[in-house]
Specification:
The structure holds 2 protein chains of 2 kinds. By secondary structure, chain A is mainly α. Chain A is about 30% helix and about 0% strand. The radius of gyration of chain A is 28 Å and the shape is elongated. By secondary structure, chain B is mainly β. Chain B has 5 helices and 34 strands. The relative contact order of chain B is 0.09. Classes of the chains: A mainly alpha, B mainly beta.
Chain lengths: ~325, ~725
C-alpha cells in the first residue's frame, strides 16, 4: 500500500508541477502585450533588384527613417544588405520588408503596436516573415518539419541584427552552441573517446549541420542527404553503399543499429562492445553464443581480444567475395 | 596528384574571377539615397595567425593526434579575408596550411547572379603506431619475408621470433581529401541552377584482420594495415524555381565510388607453400567494390490559403555494383569451386516519396501531416556457392540474401496554443515496414506523443515531451539460419515497446544569466524476445549555467550524466544432433547486463578586452565513461558460472585550453596558447599489457591497443588583421 502511495505521489507531484507551470505561463501570457495580430502585413516586394524603393508605396517610410531612431538595428554587413540581390530586404523595402510598413508607427510616435516586432509576435508568425523569402533549397522543408511542430522558429537560432557567428547569422558563435541549447546530451556524445571530428574540440571540421538540416529535410531525423539513415551515411562512406553479393542485413536496416553516429566510448563508435553487440543478434551454436568472460580473456581468445568478432568477420558491412557468406572474406 | 590539380584549378577559377572582377569594377560613387538602403560597400576584413607550435607527450601519440595533425612546426592558420562591393563578394579562408588536416575555402559572388564556392579539406585518421611482419609492395599486396614463411612452416622459427627478427614499424593511418565545388546561377529572381561536384580521395591503410580458416594453424588472426586507395566523385545538378507561392525543383545526383585496389592479397606468415589441410601461402579477398548511384528527384511545395502549405517530393534511384568476382580460393592445393556467374550483378532500385501538408488556419491551431514512402528493392540475383576459405572443406551450399526493404510512415501532429507562451502538441505516427530475409518480415509501429512547449518568453523556456510507441509483427523463424536458436529476435526488427520522456528548461532571471537543465528517460522492452536484446534503458540529465554580464566577460559550466542499461539473453551450446541436444537445454542459458555510465563536464571563461588590449579564453572539457559487463546464468545452470572481468572498460578524456592574445597595436596581437589533454583508459580486450606480446594464441596483432596519453601543446603566434 505504501509503495503505491509513493508511486502515485511522484505522479501527482509531476502533474502538479506541470499544471503550475502552465498556469504561470497562462498568467504571463495574459499580462503580456497582446499579439500583434493586427499589425499590417508586409507587401510583397514588387520593385526591381537594382532600385530599392520604399517610400513610394503607401505606408512605407524608408530605411533611413527607421535607422534614425533604431541605429543599433542596422543589418548592413550581412547578406540581407546586398541590394543587388533582388531577394534581399535591401532590394525591396529595407527594414520594412520584415517589419511591415512603418508610417503608422512613425505617426504614432513610435507606437510599438503599429509595427511588426518578431519578439512580440508568435514564433510561427515571425517564421512566416522569414519564410516569405527563405522558401527554397535548404529551407524548403521547414514547414511541417520537426522543429516547426515544436515551436522552434527562425528567431530561436538566428539573429538578423546581432549575429555572433561568422556564417548563417546564428545567435551563438558556433553551430554546436546553438544545437546544444536543446540537444546538450547529444552534443556531450561528441566529446567521448570515439567520435567523428565534429564540433569545437575538433576545430569544427564537421558540424551538426554537416549531417542534419535543422530546417527540415525529406529524410528521417532531419538528415540532409538521402532518404534513409543508410543513404545518409553512405553519402560520405560510399564504400559501404554496395549493394554487396553477401549482405549483412542489419546494415540495410540502418547503420544506427550498431553505431552511434554522435559518439561512443566503444571502438568504431559502436553502441556496445564487441562481441557483446553481435551477441544481441547471433545466438547460434558454437562460438557466437560463447560466454566471453574473464576466463576467455585470460586465455587470450581471439574472439574477445582486440576487436573480437571483427578479427575474423572483418567484412562485416557486406562482402563481395564468393566465399564471403560469413564475412570472413 | 589529381586532387592537387582539382584544388589548384578550383582555387584559380574562383579566385581569378573574383580578383579580375574586382580589378575591373569601377569604384561606385556613394549615393545618398532618399529612401534606399545604406551603402552596401563594406570594409575589407582580413585576419591571419602565424606562429610556431610544439608539443610534448607521453603515451599513445596516434590517439592524441587522431583526426588532427599536431606535428611540431611553424603554422599559418585562421586566414580569413573577405571583400565586398555593391556588386561582388569575395571570401577566402585557410586553416592549418600545409598540415594533414588543412582546409581552404574560396567563395565568389556576383551578387544576385552567381555564387561559386570551392572547399578543400583533409581529414586524417591516425589509428596507431604499429609493428608487424608485412611490407606494402603496392597494388593492394602485403608481403612477408619468405624466410619467415619457410621458418614457421618448417618449425625452425616461432611466430614470436619471426616478429622480433623481421618485424618493422609502420603507421596505421588514413587520410581523406575532399575537394568540393559549388556553383549557383540565378537566371532570374525566381530561377536558380545549381551544380555541386565533390571529389573524395582516401589513401593510407586501415586496421583490418583476416583469417584462413577455423582449424588450429588456420585460425590465426592476422592483424594488418590494409591499403586504402579509393575515390568517390559526387555530382549534383538542380534546377529550382521558387516564388512567394511555391517552389519546384528538379535534380539529378550521381555518385561514383571507384576502388583502385579491388583485390587485396596478403602473405600467410605461417606457410610458404599451399596445403590442403594446413592453409595457403597467401590469401586474397575483395575490398569494397566499385559502385555507382544515380538518383533523379523532383520536389515542390505550394502555398495555400489560411497559412497552409502542401509539399511533395519523389525520387527514383539505382545503386549498381558489378565487380568481377574473385575465385573461391587461391589455395592451389584445394579445388576452387566454379562460380555461377563472373560478376556480382548487384543492383538496387530505390524509390522514395514524401507528401506533406501543414496548416495554421487560425493563430492558436497548427497541424501537419506527412506521408513518407521508401522502397529499397534489391534486384541482385541470388548467388549460390559452396564457400572455400583456406582449409574449409567444401561445405554446404549457401544462398545469398539480397535484402530489400519497404517503409511507409504517416506522421500527424497538431498543436494548440491558447496562451501566448504555451503550446500543447499531440502527435501520432504509423509506420509499416516490409523486408526480406529477416525473422520478422513485416511489422507496424504505432507512436503516440504529447508535448508542451513554453517558448517566446524572455524568462523561461520549457519543453516537455512524452512518446510511446509499440512495434509488432509476426515472426517467421524460417528466415533464421539453420544454426540459430528459433527464439532469437534481432532487436532492430523485434517487437518492441518504447517509452520516452524528455524535458528541458532554460531559466533566464536576468538578461545576463541563465540556468539550463534537461532530463531524459527512455525504456525499450522487447516483449517477445527470448534470445537477444530484451531490455534497454537510457536516461540521464544535464545541468548548467551561462553568465554574460557584459560584452567583455562570459562564462559557463555544464554537467551531463547518461546511463545505458542493456540486458540480453543467450544460450551456449553445440549444434543440435541426434547425440547432442544441448542446443535445446535451457539450463545452458546465460544473460549479460551491460551498464554504461558517462559523465561530461564543459566549462569556459572568455575575457575579451576586460583587461585592456587583452583577450583570454579558457575552456575545460571532460568525458568520463565506464562500463560494467556482468554475466549471469540460470539457477540450475549446467554451464560454468562466468568469471567477472578484472578490467571493466573505462576511459576518461580531459581537454584544457588556455588561449591569450595581447594587442600591441589595434591590428597586431601577440598570442600564446597551451592545450593540455589527458586520456586514461582500461579495457580488457585492448589493454596494452594484454596485447603487448602481439603474438598470442591464434593471433598476430599489430600493437593497436587502447593506450593512455598525456600531451601538452604550446603555441606562440602573431595575429594580424587588416
Amino acid at each position: 500500500m505504501g509503495r503505491v502511495t509513493r508511486t502515485l505521489g511522484a505522479t501527482a507531484t509531476i502533474t502538479g508541477a506541470v499544471a503550475v507551470w502552465i498556469a504561470v505561463m497562462a498568467t504571463m501570457s495574459a499580462l503580456a502585450a497582446p499579439r500583434q495580430n493586427g499589425a499590417p502585413a508586409a507587401k510583397a516586394p514588387t520593385t526591381s533588384a537594382t532600385t530599392p524603393v520604399a517610400s513610394t508605396q503607401a505606408g512605407y517610410v524608408g530605411e533611413e527613417t527607421c535607422l534614425g531612431c533604431h541605429e543599433d538595428k542596422k543589418y548592413h554587413g550581412t547578406a540581407h544588405a546586398r541590394a543587388k540581390n533582388p531577394r534581399t530586404p535591401a532590394a525591396a523595402q529595407g527594414c520594412e520588408s520584415c517589419h511591415g510598413p512603418g508610417q503608422a508607427h512613425v505617426d504614432g510616435g513610435g507606437d510599438k503596436a503599429k509595427i511588426r516586432n518578431p519578439k512580440a509576435i508568435s514564433v510561427a508568425e515571425s517564421s512566416e516573415i522569414c519564410l516569405s523569402c527563405h522558401n527554397r533549397s535548404e529551407h524548403n522543408n521547414f514547414e511541417g518539419g520537426k522543429h516547426e511542430s515544436r515551436n522552434v522558429g527562425c528567431v530561436t537560432c538566428h539573429s538578423v541584427h546581432a549575429p555572433k557567428s561568422e556564417k548563417a547569422q546564428l545567435k551563438t558563435e558556433t553551430v554546436e552552441e546553438t544545437c546544444k541549447s536543446c540537444h546538450q546530451n547529444v552534443v556531450n556524445k561528441v566529446h567521448r573517446s570515439s567520435h567523428m571530428p565534429v564540433g569545437t574540440l575538433s576545430d569544427n571540421k564537421l558540424e551538426c549541420t554537416t549531417c542534419h538540416n535543422p530546417h527540415g529535410s525529406q529524410n528521417v531525423k532531419m538528415l540532409r542527404e538521402g532518404n534513409s539513415i543508410t543513404e545518409a551515411c553512405a553519402s560520405c562512406h560510399a564504400e559501404k553503399r554496395g549493394p554487396f553479393l553477401w549482405e549483412h542485413v542489419a546494415v540495410r536496416e540502418g547503420c544506427t543499429s550498431c553505431h552511434d553516429a554522435h559518439g561512443s566510448n566503444n571502438e568504431r563508435m559502436l553502441v556496445a562492445k564487441v562481441p557483446m553487440l553481435c551477441q544481441r543478434c547471433h545466438v547460434s551454436s558454437r562460438h557466437p553464443a560463447t560466454v566471453y568472460d574473464q576466463t576467455q580473456v585470460a586465455n587470450k581468445s581471439n574472439r574477445v581480444m582486440s576487436r573480437g568478432c571483427v578479427n575474423c568477420h572483418s567484412q562485416i558491412h557486406g562482402s563481395n567475395h564468393p566465399s564471403g557468406n560469413f564475412f570472413l572474406r | 596528384m589529381r586532387t592537387r590539380m582539382i584544388v589548384l584549378s578550383g582555387v584559380l577559377l574562383v579566385a581569378s574571377a573574383g580578383f579580375a572582377q574586382a580589378q575591373d569594377a569601377k569604384p561606385t560613387t556613394p549615393q545618398v539615397p532618399t529612401q534606399s538602403a545604406a551603402p552596401t560597400i563594406s570594409p575589407k576584413v582580413g585576419t591571419v595567425d602565424f606562429g610556431y607550435r610544439g608539443d610534448s607527450f607521453t603515451g599513445d601519440q596516434a590517439r592524441y593526434n587522431r583526426q588532427r595533425d599536431l606535428v611540431d612546426g611553424a603554422f599559418l592558420d585562421k586566414f580569413r579575408f573577405s571583400r565586398e562591393t555593391e556588386n561582388q563578394y569575395f571570401r577566402a579562408e585557410a586553416y592549418r596550411v600545409g598540415y594533414d588536416d588543412q582546409r581552404y575555402l574560396v567563395r565568389f559572388d556576383e551578387i544576385g547572379k552567381f555564387v561559386a564556392k570551392f572547399d578543400f579539406v583533409q581529414n586524417p585518421l591516425y589509428q596507431a603506431h604499429a609493428f608487424g611482419l608485412y611490407t606494402n609492395t603496392g597494388g593492394g599486396v602485403l608481403a612477408v619475408n619468405d624466410a619467415v614463411q619457410a621458418g614457421i612452416q618448417n618449425g625452425t622459427l616461432t611466430q614470436a621470433q619471426a616478429l622480433a627478427q623481421y618485424g618493422q614499424n609502420f603507421d596505421i593511418r588514413t587520410k581523406r581529401s575532399v575537394a568540393a565545388f559549388n556553383a549557383m546561377y540565378s537566371a532570374s529572381r525566381d530561377l536558380d541552377f545549381k551544380v555541386n561536384v565533390r571529389n573524395t580521395e582516401r589513401s593510407g591503410n586501415n586496421l583490418q584482420s583476416l583469417v584462413f580458416g577455423s582449424s588450429p594453424g588456420n585460425a590465426t588472426v592476422l592483424d594488418m594495415g590494409v591499403p586504402q586507395n579509393d575515390r568517390t566523385t559526387d555530382v549534383k545538378a538542380q534546377l529550382e524555381y521558387a516564388n512567394r507561392v511555391g517552389m519546384l525543383a528538379v535534380g539529378y545526383n550521381a555518385s561514383w565510388y571507384n576502388q583502385n585496389n579491388p583485390t587485396f592479397k596478403w602473405d600467410n606468415p605461417l606457410r610458404l607453400a599451399d596445403s590442403a589441410t594446413a592453409g595457403p601461402a597467401f590469401g586474397q579477398t575483395a575490398l569494397w567494390p566499385t559502385n555507382t548511384a544515380n538518383t533523379f528527384n523532383v520536389n515542390g511545395s505550394y502555398k495555400l490559403p489560411l497559412h497552409s502549405r502542401v509539399m511533395g517530393a519523389i525520387s527514383y534511384g539505382t545503386w549498381d555494383q558489378n565487380q568481377t568476382l574473385l575465385p573461391n580460393t587461391v589455395n592451389t592445393a584445394l579445388v576452387s569451386n566454379p562460380l555461377e556467374r563472373p560478376t556480382a550483378e548487384a543492383k538496387a532500385d530505390i524509390t522514395s516519396g514524401l507528401v506533406g501538408f501543414s496548416s495554421r488556419p487560425v493563430q492558436p491551431v497548427y497541424f501537419t501531416a506527412r506521408y513518407r514512402y521508401y522502397d529499397y528493392a534489391n534486384k541482385t540475383p541470388v548467388f549460390t556457392n559452396t564457400a572455400t576459405v583456406a582449409d574449409y572443406a567444401p561445405g554446404a551450399l549457401e544462398e545469398s540474401e539480397p535484402a530489400s526493404m519497404k517503409r511507409q510512415t504517416l506522421d500527424l501532429d497538431g498543436s494548440f496554443s491558447p496562451f501566448k507562451y504555451v503550446g500543447f502538441n499531440a502527435g501520432y505516427s504509423y509506420e509499416s515496414d516490409d523486408r526480406t530475409f529477416r525473422v520478422i518480415p513485416h511489422n507496424t509501429e504505432n507512436t503516440a506523443r504529447l508535448s508542451i512547449d513554453s517558448t517566446g518568453n524572455q524568462y523561461i523556456t520549457a519543453r516537455l515531451k512524452w512518446e510511446y510507441s509499440t512495434r509488432s509483427g509476426a515472426a517467421d523463424e524460417g528466415f533464421l539460419p539453420d544454426s540459430e536458436q528459433p527464439k532469437m529476435r534481432q532487436f532492430d526488427v523485434a517487437n518492441r515497446d518504447r517509452n520516452r520522456v524528455t524535458a528541458l528548461f532554460t531559466v533566464t532571471p536576468v538578461s545576463y544569466f541563465d540556468v539550463n537543465a534537461s532530463v531524459f528517460d527512455g525504456h525499450d522492452k522487447y516483449p517477445d524476445t527470448y534470445f537477444g536484446l530484451r531490455d534497454f534503458k537510457n536516461n540521464g540529465y544535464t545541468i548548467g549555467f551561462d553568465v554574460i554580464p557584459n560584452a567583455k566577460v562570459s562564462g559557463g559550466l555544464n554537467y551531463g550524466y547518461e546511463k545505458n542499461d542493456a540486458f540480453q539473453w543467450s544460450r551456449t551450446a553445440n549444434p543440435l544432433s541426434a547425440t547432442d541436444v544441448t542446443f535445446l537445454d535451457p539450463r545452458r542459458d546465460w544473460n549479460l547486463t551491460t551498464l554504461d555510465k558517462v559523465t561530461t563536464w564543459s566549462a569556459y571563461v572568455d575575457c575579451l578586452k576586460m583587461v585592456q588590449k587583452t583577450e583570454i579564453r579558457l575552456s575545460y572539457d571532460l568525458s568520463d565513461g565506464n562500463s560494467n559487463q556482468n554475466y549471469a546464468v540460470t539457477a540450475n545452470a549446467t554451464i560454468p558460472t562466468p568469471t567477472p572481468y578484472l578490467l571493466q572498460p573505462k576511459n576518461k578524456v580531459q581537454v584544457a585550453k588556455l588561449d591569450g592574445k595581447y594587442f600591441i597595436r589595434p591590428n597586431i596581437a601577440l598570442g600564446a596558447a597551451i592545450w593540455y589533454e589527458e586520456y586514461s583508459v582500461q579495457d580488457f580486450a585492448l589493454d596494452p599489457a594484454t596485447l603487448a606480446p602481439q603474438v598470442l594464441p591464434f593471433a598476430i596483432y599489430t600493437g593497436y591497443t587502447y593506450a593512455p596519453y598525456k600531451a601538452t601543446t604550446g603555441f606562440v603566434r602573431v595575429t594580424y588583421l587588416w
